[in-house]
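Researcher: I'm comparing several assemblies side by side, and this is the next one on my list. It has 228 residues spread over two chains. Same procedure as the others: predict the full complex and return the structure.
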Amino acid sequence: MREVTQPATEAIRLAEVLRALADPVRLEIVQRLDRTGQENCTALGGEIDVHQTTLSHHYRVLREAGVTWTTVQGRSRLVRLRRNDLDALFPGLLDSVLAGRMREIATTSAIETP
Amino acid sequence: MREVTQPATEAIRLAEVLRALADPVRLEIVQRLDRTGQENCTALGGEIDVHQTTLSHHYRVLREAGVTWTTVQGRSRLVRLRRNDLDALFPGLLDSVLAGRMREIATTSAIETP
């Protein structure tokens, strides 16, 4: 099993979490993970319209900030949200970000679709 | 009166707001503004330990993301949080970020001060 670097709960920092969330593609990844619980990195990549290298970068940013937890199983990387950690450290943050994103998507779609 | 660029409410984007908040100095500025209501940029600079040029950069990032609203009065720039806009667009976000920061500061101080 290959090792992946990811911070212990007490090493998660607010500014790093916010920076990790501050990107439309990463917000999309987080939203999917919130819905599905856990994803295989490669499978998730197939449904998001960015290059695999770019996607790997986004996964790393999320993981290193402590937003996601990655488990390596053979050739697969299973990714899930660290919801318990984030909710304990920054209560309400993840929920408000996810709700804000849903609202933003709905508003933008409403404007773009006459 | 010089003009400053700042987005209309409907042009504020979640990813930009998160990016603006994703910095310890900017979090400190936001926390102060939340406490005081409004600040003169220069006065605020005196109490935060970074160079004025760096501080001007941070103010610009906050303003252009729609986190703060700046009013130019003579040679002063008065800055305040766009709390109503942010609370309407992303309910709970600003509060969870501010609470998370307070908690983080308290925890870090407790560890560093035996």
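Model: For your comparison table: Residues 93-112 of chain A form the longest helix (20 residues).
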